[in-house]
């Protein structure tokens, strides 16, 4: 299913709002590193993100080393950032309270 | 806790036994890519590996993109491969039947 990429204005607004996320220009993606007390906490977070992702039918590219989780969001079907990434980033941020 | 790295002979034997795993010489690590039907299956596998890892108190470096899981095993406290990596790799392989 084709998804429209964000317009320049919408991208700028999204990056302004998602102030904990970094912009990866090469991928037209947003990234954020999350650090927890230990692996158990990190994987609990990943499980919650997995549920969000499956519900949204939009999935992160992510990696985990011990207490650290690196998340990259982009939309392959849009060739870059779309509203799906903004929505998932906001939902992930909301997990952290 | 310091862990002894594998001897040359033990490393060679381990790499011979773990024939689905590749050797990353730069990291003195073993890696394996797992591919599933979809994200749900991939994350179910990750959850099972997380339980194994926590039980063994030895954790992978790993990443996931949709249906793909890339696992790298090495032992930081040993500066490379140790018996912990061999045991975890065998336990992961055993999940796949």
UniProtKB/TrEMBL annotation, chains A, B:
Keywords carried by this UniProt record: Lyase
Record keyword Lyase present: yes
Enzyme class: lyase
Pfam families in UniProt: Pterin_4a
Keyword match Cell membrane: no
Record EC number: 4.2.1.96
Cited InterPro entries: PCD_sf (IPR036428), Pterin_deHydtase (IPR001533)
Entry's family note: Belongs to the pterin-4-alpha-carbinolamine dehydratase family.
Protein name: Putative pterin-4-alpha-carbinolamine dehydratase
Provenance organism: Sphingomonas glacialis
């Amino acid at each position: 299913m084709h998804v429209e990429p964000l317009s320049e204005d919408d991208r700028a607004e999204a990056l302004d709002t998602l102030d904990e996320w970094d912009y990866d220009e090469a991928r037209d993606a947003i990234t954020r590193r999350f650090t927890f007390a230990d692996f158990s906490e990190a994987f609990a977070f990943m499980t919650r993100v997995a549920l969000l992702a499956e519900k949204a039918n939009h999935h992160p590219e992510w990696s985990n080393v011990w207490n650290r989780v690196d998340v990259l969001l982009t939309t392959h079907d849009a060739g870059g950032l779309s509203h799906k990434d903004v929505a998932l980033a906001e939902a992930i941020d909301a997990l952290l309270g």
